[in-house]
Write a structure and sequence with these properties.
The structure holds two protein chains of two kinds.
Chain A: E1 2-8, E2 15-19, E3 22-25, E4 27-35, E5 40-47, E6 53-56, E7 67-68, H1 75-79, E8 82-88, E9 96-99, E10 102-103, E11 107-115, H2 124-128, E12 138-147, E13 151-156
Antiparallel strand pairs in A: 1-2, 1-8, 2-3, 3-7, 4-5, 4-11, 5-6, 8-9, 9-10, 11-12, 12-13
Chain B: H1 2-19, H2 22-26, H3 37-42, H4 89-102, E1 107-109, E2 121-125, H5 129-139, E3 160-163, E4 169-172, H6 178-204
Parallel strand pairs in B: 2-4
Antiparallel strand pairs in B: 1-2, 3-4
Classes of the chains: A mainly beta, B alpha+beta.
């Protein structure tokens, strides 16, 4: 059973991903789409210690050469963030989801897609450009619950 | 930072001083044939032949009035052909040197080709860019743009003028002035460096909008 945690406030700048309790670095993209109907899509794209880019399933694959880094946030900072933890072996039946250390139930769907921005080449002209929205960055994280009365509701995670 | 600014100012003054066309402004009828205009600049490199001037300094239009030794008729400034030593050594040396440097001209322009040209003038045209510049200078068809560093002509010397033993004058095309080019590169490089530094400092101080990069130093994403 692998444990994947995402600690964030909804921005990529303040997003830490932990794999089995250790914070990882060099992530390019994280995609999770878990549904009660059995859908279990999970992909992590990262740059390894050897500089190569890897695409893995964090719950079933061994994450070769993944970069571990020192914890980025202090206790005080972490209190301002939300922590989503997924414990799974790659099967939706054996998947537990925790939110701020509380186990969730009634989940219909969990969708997380975080992608780091594409690196623009720095040049002299970039000095004179106005600030633009960061290109290529994606941060979507929602979970869908079924409430009593068969009410389906989707909420932002972070 | 202050040192860099000082350096740039020094470079700026040096560049302006070097590139400023003093002789162009002093000489009247700029670009026409003859006159004193071309002498000092055309033979910019001839100062290394300064030793030859001990034979009279015949190329000067201001005769040395003090020394009686140079008052012999053979050293008349109006008739170069009567010089005892066969004209100015400077021009002789230059001529052979220039001939080996430039090679065979594609065309020799004389007064037959251009009526306005004085009869004792030959223009060696090599069909290249420098030759075009030379014709511009000689015909007076210059532009103020030529004195700006954005124009290639800025990095060329004036046409080289050689006075031959028989009194004829030969013009050679200007040459690329490497030192001026390098100095300009240093000058504009310094300016660009300072501008970039200022922009970066202003950005750090929050006076300018930051570039569209995220601070991902604390994120798992990079």
């Amino acid at each position: 059973m692998a444990v994947l945690s995402i600690e964030s406030n909804g921005t990529i700048e303040l997003t830490a991903v932990y794999y089995n309790g250790q914070q990882v670095g060099g992530l390019k993209e994280l995609f999770l789409n878990l549904s009660e109907d059995g859908t279990f899509d999970s992909v992590i794209v990262y740059t390894g210690t050897d500089g190569l880019e890897y695409l893995k399933n964090p719950f079933t694959d061994y994450l070769d050469n993944i970069v571990y880094r020192e914890p980025a946030f202090t206790e005080e900072e972490a209190q301002q963030l939300h922590l989503l933890t997924i414990e799974s072996d790659g099967d939706i039946e054996n998947t537990l989801v925790y939110y701020d250390n509380e186990m969730l139930d009634g989940l219909v769907n969990l969708f997380v897609h975080i992608k780091s921005p594409s690196r623009g080449q720095s040049s002299i002209t970039s000095l004179f450009k106005k600030e633009k929205p960061v290109e290529g960055a994606i941060f979507k994280a929602t979970f869908t619950f079924r409430y009593p009365g068969d009410i389906i509701k989707t909420e932002e995670i972070f | 930072m202050k040192k860099i600014k000082f350096l740039v100012w020094v470079l700026a003054f040096a560049l302006i001083f070097i590139s400023f066309p003093f002789e162009e402004l002093i000489a009247k009828g700029g670009g026409s044939f003859g006159g004193t205009r071309g002498y000092s600049r055309s033979f910019g490199g001839s100062k290394s032949f300064g030793g030859s001037r001990s034979f009279g300094g015949t190329r000067s239009y201001v005769p040395p009035t003090t020394s009686p030794r140079y008052s012999t008729p053979m050293r008349s400034y109006n008739n170069p052909t009567t010089r005892s030593f066969g004209g100015t050594a400077t021009s002789m040396f230059n001529r052979s040197q220039l001939q080996s440097k430039y090679g065979v001209p594609r065309k020799v322009i004389t007064s037959k080709d251009i009526p306005n040209l004085p009869r004792n003038v030959q223009v060696y045209h090599f069909g290249d860019f420098a030759s075009g510049l030379m014709m511009g200078y000689l015909m007076g068809h210059t532009s103020w743009l030529w004195y700006l560093p954005f124009h290639p002509a800025f990095y060329y010397t004036q046409p080289v003028k050689v006075v031959n033993e028989d009194g004829t004058v030969t013009y050679y095309p200007p040459t690329f002035d490497t030192s001026k080019f390098l100095l300009s590169l240093i000058f504009f490089g310094s300016i660009a460096f300072i501008i970039i530094r200022i922009i970066k400092v202003k950005r750090k101080q929050g006076l300018l909008p930051r570039n569209s990069t995220m601070d991902l130093s604390r994120s798992s994403f990079s």
